[in-house]
Design brief:
The complex is a heterodimer.
Chain A lengths: L1 H30 L4 H4 L12 H12 L1 H32 L3 H15 L4 H10 L4 H26 L3 H9 L4 H12 L1 H16 L5 H4 L8 H11 L4 H21 L1 H10 L5
Helix pairs in contact in A: 3-13, 4-7, 4-10, 4-12, 5-7, 7-10, 8-9, 10-14, 12-13
Chain B lengths: L14 H21 L2 E2 L9 E2 L3 H8 L1 H32 L6 H9 L6 H11 L6 H8 L16 H25 L4 H9 L4 H12 L1 H17 L2 H6 L11 H10 L3 H29 L4
The chains are: A mainly alpha, B mainly alpha.
């Protein structure tokens, strides 16, 4: 009896605490539907005058959202695909080879999990190689996400028995076919996880893109928030509409693929 | 092993990966060490001159630059402690089977998937001195004294930004700890109960020692995250007011913007050393305390 009561208390307490997360979301949503004067008060009241559609239309026209959306896709999709391919190949070889060279390479990769990147020297290198804008941002983001990818794939490769490789080779399979036709399909569960978490990491990136994409024409969606607020700092209704639109894809992906996102984002942090 | 099996794991498969990783991560790290000793103001090494330790001396002595070091530590420690403590409380509560367990886990993790810029902007609005809902709420419940100029008062701005970081990542920390909790077999608690253990004793003698690995990782991940912080600070205060919320990340960005590449690089080398100095001992110390299951 007292146990049941205790549960109710915990349940109520939990819901109450969740308001700390829910209220900010509710606040941006409701204010994105208001007119300029009401939204300036940034409170939680219902709109006195609904401007839902017109706010979003204005924001789309002025925020460069379409261009930014295309830029975000252009930067994110190829980068993620490259990360998946390179990390899977590398992890497979490094996990299978028991060599001094391979363990040194693994250590170099693991180092990247916690050592912060040196952005200014990276910029120097990009200048010398004459890569700029999207290509530079993509290469730097790929490099930054490689440690996580290799780490995840190496963990997963351990669970694939080496007998598979040996019997395939003895049956006359070439090493290349072994990887692409036999091993790679077996990696699919972790590929899905990695796809989603690197997609979100690059989509949401600010720390790298702010250095390389410095012109409204090549802004990603995430950068438009920063820029849009600078230009429209008194139009909270439009600013919030912008935040909603930019965050919506990520939130939808989160609700669709929660498990993979949580397991992927925390994989590097949980042993076993 | 038959001969033909020796070369099935061809090293050339790792080349493309190491080419990119080497050029855009490893090489910059090494080069950074070199650049930090140069007096260089353009992306051209021919105009550079050797500066000795001058860049490091500047970072350590210039008050504007050295406040960043202090703030980074405050930020990292405050956020880590709060995230781990709150994350632990949430994890312990949500490890029980409630009707709303799954819903609550989903909600608490949600902020972790948003971009820092979006989160920063939401809190810029919420922390507005007169209209922001935080102060409006405090005034309504009669706690006007607690209402602050959260982001414009130089004494508390860094803590306000730390609070935003905590809001974003507590759910993430909770999930790491929750994963640790779920590896503890139910039978351990049953045994403890038979021995007459109280709830606190069960936590102290069963739960805590057994989630040490997860705890270590939560601590290390958050410390590194706190020291590296850039996004949230840049999007909320850009290091201001004045230099009140300057951290390593914003300092490097400012040095980059003003062309002081040597100093910026020195700051980021210092950050690197600090991360290694903080993380490795913490990791070692806590790993020793882990118990085998």
């Amino acid at each position: 009896m007292s146990n049941k009561k205790g549960r109710w208390v915990i349940e109520a307490l939990g819901l109450l605490l969740s308001l700390v997360v829910i209220i900010p979301f509710y606040m941006i949503l409701v204010n994105s539907f208001k007119n300029k004067e009401d939204a300036a008060l940034v409170n939680l009241h219902a709109p006195t005058q609904w401007q839902a559609i017109s706010n979003y239309i204005t924001m789309f026209q002025e925020g460069g959202v379409w261009t930014a959306f295309k830029n975000s896709i252009l930067l994110t999709v190829p980068s993620v695909l490259v990360i998946i391919l390179l990390c899977a190949m590398t992890a497979f070889v490094l996990q299978r080879r028991k060599h001094k060279a391979s363990s040194l390479m693994s250590s170099l990769i693991v180092l990247g999990l916690f050592v912060p990147g040196q952005i200014i020297p990276t910029y120097f290198i990009c200048q010398y190689l004459h890569v700029s804008s999207f290509l530079a941002a993509a290469l730097v983001l790929i490099a930054a996400n490689i440690p996580m990818g290799v780490f995840l794939y190496m963990g997963f490769c351990k669970s694939i028995p080496t007998e598979i490789d040996e019997s395939a080779i003895l049956d006359g399979c070439s090493p290349l076919r072994l990887f692409f036709q036999i091993i790679y399909p077996l990696l699919q569960p972790i590929t899905v996880t990695l796809f989603i978490i690197t997609f979100m990491a690059i989509w949401n990136d600010f720390g790298t893109t702010i250095y390389f994409l410095n012109n409204t024409k090549n802004f990603t969606l995430t950068l438009t928030i920063f820029n849009f607020f600078g230009v429209h700092s008194s139009d909270w209704n439009l600013v919030f509409a912008n935040v909603i639109i930019v965050s919506l894809p990520v939130i939808i992906v989160y609700f669709l693929a929660q498990k993979q996102i949580i397991s992927g984002m925390t994989a590097g942090a949980v042993k076993g | 092993m038959p001969k033909q099996l020796k070369n099935i794991y061809a090293y050339w498969l790792v080349i493309p990966c190491f080419l990119i990783y080497g050029l855009f991560f490893l090489l910059p790290s090494v080069m950074g060490l070199g650049i930090s000793f140069l007096n260089i103001r353009s992306f051209n090494f021919s105009s550079a001159s050797f500066a000795g330790l001058q860049n490091y001396i500047n970072v350590f002595t210039d008050s504007y630059l050295n406040i960043a070091i202090k703030n980074s530590f405050i930020f990292a420690i405050v956020t880590t402690v709060l995230k781990v403590v709150l994350g632990m409380i949430l994890a312990v509560f949500l490890n029980t089977k409630l009707k709303t367990t799954n819903l609550l886990r989903t909600v608490f993790f949600l902020p972790a998937v948003l971009s820092s810029v979006a989160v920063g902007l939401i809190f810029t609005a919420m922390m507005h001195p007169t209209r922001g809902i935080i102060n409006v709420f405090l005034n309504t419940i009669g706690l006007d004294v607690l209402a602050q100029n959260w982001l414009t008062n130089p004494h508390i701005a860094i803590f306000s930004v730390a609070f935003i970081e905590v809001w974003k990542w507590t759910g993430f920390t909770m999930v790491i700890l929750l994963a640790g909790l779920q590896t503890i077999p139910e039978s351990y608690y049953e045994a403890a109960e038979i021995d007459g253990a109280t709830a606190w004793m069960k936590f102290k003698f069963v739960t805590f020692p057994l989630i040490m690995p997860a705890f270590t990782n939560a601590l290390v991940v958050n410390l590194i995250g706190g020291l590296k912080a850039f996004d949230i600070v840049q999007s909320v205060t850009q290091g201001g007011p004045g230099s009140a919320t300057e951290v390593f990340g914003t300092l490097v960005y400012k040095s980059f913007g003003s062309g002081r590449y040597g100093e910026g690089t020195a700051a980021s080398i210092i950050l690197c050393v600090v991360v290694l100095l903080v993380v490795l001992p913490v990791y070692k110390f806590l790993s020793n305390k882990e118990v085998e299951m």
